[in-house]
Amino acid sequence: MDVSGLILAGGRASRMGGEDKGLVPVAGAPMIAHVLERLRPQVGALAINANRHHSAYESFGHPVLADEIADYAGPLAGMLAGLVWAPSEYMQVVPCDGPLIAEDLVSRLRTGIGSADVAVVHDGVRLQPTHLLIATHCVAHLRAFLADGGRKIDQWLAQLDCQQVDFSDRAAMFRNVNTPQERDAMTVTLLKSDCGDSA
User: Fold this and answer.
1) How far apart are CA 36 and CA 101, in angstroms?
2) Reported pTM
3) Cβ neighbours for 156, distance < 8 A, ≥ 6 positions apart
4) Which one of 30, 155, 160, 174 has the fewest CB atoms closer than 10 angstroms to its CB?
5) How far apart are CA 60 and CA 128, in angstroms?
6) Distance CA 77, CA 83 (A)
7) What is d(CA 79, CA 67) in angstroms, rounded to the nearest whole number?
8) CB 39 within 8 A of CB 94
9) Local structure of residue 148 (DSSP, 8 states)
């Protein structure tokens, strides 16, 4: 496949009390296990961006990539690490705290990107910039943007040829887990899904 996958799990998770969100148990498994289960069939190679607990993440059997930039520089730093690693023409990025990934996420973004640099998900109201497909030739551009002090995804995307892809019909995908209460609600949703009930 010409698409690799990158799961972003490199943040501080301050709203979760500093817990490593990807390793937080949800519905009987670490949250990243649910993300891996849904993303793995859609991509070729797969890696995890993490800045702590590397051995725990390595246990899932995929490369673990630390940021090149120190002190938790944000998701773009994780994307840079992924683009340096990616053995493909494109790289699909998803966050570790959104387990309800659509089964057609990659195929729709791959169709939507056309000849552009990036295809980013739009939920019908706003962009979801941590759900995006990036052409790996953007690695040099992103490295320069970060070296100049850039940190905001929307500012970087504004400098690229960027296509928006409508995912308003996949609203569940944008439910993420930032608090213990959201973790509990996601557990209920995933357990219902495993039982064949609608979420």
Assistant:
1) 10
2) 0.92
3) 76, 142, 145, 150
4) 155
5) 26
6) 10
7) 8
8) yes
9) T
pLDDT tens string 153-184: 999 999 999 999 999 999 999 998 888 888 89
Q: Nearest 5°: phi and psi at 47?
A: -140, 165
Q: How far apart are CA 101 and CA 167, in angstroms?
A: 11
* Nearest CA-CA partner of 159 in 182, 180, 141: 141
The model's pLDDT over 119-144, given as tens digits with 9 standing for 90+, comes to: 999 999 999 999 999 999 999 999 99
User: What does the block give as tokens for 191?
Assistant: 């357990």
* Distance of alpha carbon 107 from the chain centroid: 15
Interhelix angle 75-85/139-147, rounded to 10 degrees, is: 140
DSSP letter for each residue of 125-153: SSEEEEEEEEEGGGHHHHHHHHHTT---H
- CA 12, CA 19: separation in Å to the nearest integer? 8
The CA distances from residue 1 to 86, 92, 106, 131, 159, in Å, are: 12, 12, 11, 19, 27
Strands of 118-122's sheet, edge to edge?
A: 64-65, 46-50, 3-9, 90-95, 127-135, 118-122, 162-166
Q: Quickly list DSSP for 33-48.
A: HHHHHHHGGG-SSEEE
C-beta separation of 176 from 95 below 8 A: yes
Tell me which amino acid residue 142 is: L
Contact (CB, 8 A) for 47 and 36: no
Closest CA to 5 of 147, 70, 101, 69: 101
